[in-house]
Amino acid sequence: xxxxxxxxIVADDFGFxxxxxxxxPSRSAAxxxxxxxHFPDTLPAAQRSRSAVPTxxxxxxxxxxxxxxxxxxxxxxxxxxxxxxxxxxxxxxxxAEGERAVWIDAGHLVAGACWRAGPLLxxxxxxxEALRAAEVLSRSGGFALLVVDxxxxxxxxxxxxxRAAHEGGTALVLLTRVTALATIRLASRARLExxxxxxxxxxxxxxxxAVSLRVEARASGWHAGTDLVIPVWRDDTRLSLEPGRRDRRxxx
Amino acid sequence: MTLVCLWNPxxxxxxxxxxxxxxxxxxxxxxxxxxxxMVWADARGLEARGLAGGLLALIRERGGVPRAGISAVPxxxxxxxxxxxxxxxxxxxxxxRAFLAPWPLEVLAPPKELVPALEATGIERCGDxxxxxxxAVEVRFGxxxxxxxxxxxxxxxxxxxxxxxxxxxSASLEWSDYVLxxxxxxxxxxxxxxxxxxxxxxxVGQGADRLTLVFTLAGGGSVEHAVQPSRPxxxxxxxxxxxxxxxxxxxxxxxxxxxxxxVDAVRPTESVQGxxxxxxxxxxxAAEAALARVLDRDAVLVTARNSQHPLVRRRTEWIxxxxxxxWARPQIxxxxxxxxxxxHLLPEPEPVEVEATDRQGFAVPVRYRGAEEGxxxxxxxxxxxxxxxxxxxxxxxYEAYCCVRGDGELVQLCxxxxxxxxxxxxxWR
Lengths: 252, 429
Fold this sequence. Notes:
- Chain A is α/β, with parallel strands linked by helices.
- Among the domains of chain A are: 10-48, no CATH class; 58-187, Rossmann fold (3-Layer(aba) Sandwich).
- Chain A has helices at 25-38, 45-48, 58-61, 83-96, 127-140, 155-168; strands at residues 10-11, 43-44, 74-78, 101-105, 120-124, 145-149, 171-175, 184-190, 196-198, 207-219, 222-231.
- Chain A is globular.
- By secondary structure, chain B is of the alpha+beta class.
- Chain B folds into three domains: 3-152, Alpha-Beta Plaits (2-Layer Sandwich); 170-268, Dna Ligase, domain 1 (2-Layer Sandwich); 343-428, no CATH class.
């Protein structure tokens, strides 16, 4: 290994082993110590590069090749039940970890009553503005996770977005059916037969309380899936007669 | 702030004091006529004793017999002027309490109801009162006593003069030899003006909240265009983006012989305390700048303010936020990150055709068809939630169902009872 010129070099986990012969784990620790002593600014590449952005749902993270959304990469999630819920959860998890997440709501679909504060919620004026905003924000490098909901970009736009994500190191996820240039493609499918229901004795149909999903991830040379159960939000204030009081009529 | 209090018993009325104050404005930048015989001058940044001497001379010329008190604390300056033995009495900063201590309490003009109580407790001089603890004074003499205690200690900080507004920066350029029609050349000049104004604002830590671009036309007259960035900023590059957009839209009737850029409103720029444990701190500046670009023309950044309105659609007021929101560190609990299938509302309710069956007097949907899709079978329709209320044009009456479709999707189907039609209001995602 050549001595560093600037005082900072990067060696991968076993990159320096070629100069030291075969390295066993115990010897590698000693080698690391030796390296740290002689080159205090050296960092193994595995420590230098930041990890992926996990969704925070372990069953879901396991089906990603990198354990989460890869930074600097474009991912697409086909719109379907559960996709927005899982991405929203990933955004919250990102913010909870001290990083920044932004949700671009191009379709103006987010209902304020169901939105949890944390990720930045951007409402563009139209589809084109949504794509432009996604490009600018991705390229800035200030956001770990960026989700765009409600646009169907063409291939040219996908190229721009992919490049912007790469330059900014942002994990960019599009909720779209267009899959061109995506490094990973996700889809969620409902498993109706395994939905959770709250049974009513008479006079009223059963309420769906939980949704069962099959989530599948596909990348180059990669295909994995998992099953998830997600609760369904109920509007507790829908019949309230007084502000701040939950409606409990009909409950046993 | 250094204050000069002028006491002139010869000016026996408030009107005479006001008249005198007008004359004194030739010497002092700010004058205030407080009550009969008393005039205040703002000596901030001036040589106070010299100013007081000049003011006294001017009053004497008008037949007065004045005295002056100089102090940073109004009550000390007032007592020095009214009760001082010299023409000019100066109370140095930090010695106000010691100056006031020997004076009897009457000089502070205590409220009449307090006088017997103060006499009964043997408090005669300002120093006696100032030596007590605030708590003890408050318990015995109430709020008026506490206010008197502060004056006796020389802690009277009520501002006599409001802070002076700083002149907002502006830059302009005029030319008479030629007339410009070319936007590119105007842009070049504008760039220089922007740099100058931006530097002036940055020097005082402020950002422009609103700018005005003024074109002076060759045929006379001028045209103004206001520009409002999404956040207060002193960043010339950010302004140039907006100004370029403005310049592209502007249509002028004549050539331009002058250009001016004026800042109309400013706000302090955000200065945020760093946190070494904040993983996003290092990139917050870049995030804010990028977000500001987006908010300038493409989008709005919003937060939700929810009420208790029964209709989800009317429950939320979206509040526009500035790009500086990126510096906020929201607290998110462990349970807050759990996923949940929640209702997403269509921008507008979408009318649909519904086939329904009767259940206890309600029409319950069994399948529906939208304008652009085929029939969707409904496996289960829970409800209805009968939602009604509002007045006049805001009145509403819905029977809302949470329907599970055959493909597993959950949709909110509502029967508008007032118009007797079915609509899809939202979808759980």
